[in-house]
Design brief:
This protein has 133 residues and is of the alpha/beta class. 46% of the residues lie in helices and 24% in strands. Strands 3-2-1-4-5 form a five-stranded parallel sheet, with helices on both faces. The protein is globular, with a radius of gyration of 14 Å.
């Protein structure tokens, strides 16, 4: 069964809503399961529950068939997303343009002019869809 993973913020931002809308469209188009992922950062000390995330998503989009809601904890959002996408062997990851910008800033500390889309495709071995809000 194909799998689409979409990382989102909680509470849902305008960008997260746009990214999620595209992920839902892609999941329906490909007859895929959908994983809605939120990363709680240890350093922020807030813990979002799966129920909170699910309610927020369903308030915006209604019930989404074959959706799974996942909360992961980590120090770096980007690394935690990469870990989840790889562990789930996702076919598609849908990320917002703001997330790409954050990854670009993070990786620019280590690499010269990183091509984030290419990096993600190489590391994740899946389709990467970037959504602008």
């Amino acid at each position: 069964m194909p799998l689409v993973v979409v990382p989102v913020r909680y509470p849902l931002s305008r960008h997260s809503q746009a990214t999620l809308a595209e992920a839902v469209r892609i999941a329906e188009e490909r007859d895929a399961d959908l994983t809605v992922l939120h990363v709680d950062l240890y350093q922020e000390g807030r813990e979002v529950t799966r129920t909170e995330l699910k309610r927020a998503v369903e308030a915006e989009f209604g019930r989404i068939d074959r959706a799974r809601y996942v909360i992961r904890r980590g120090f770096l959002v980007e690394e935690t997303i990469l870990d989840e996408v790889a562990a789930e062997n996702a076919d598609v990851v849908v990320i917002g343009s703001k997330q790409v910008s954050r990854w670009r800033r993070t990786f620019s500390r280590f690499l010269d002019d990183p091509d984030i889309d290419r990096f993600l495709r190489e590391k994740l071995d899946c389709d990467v869809v970037t959504v602008s809000a």
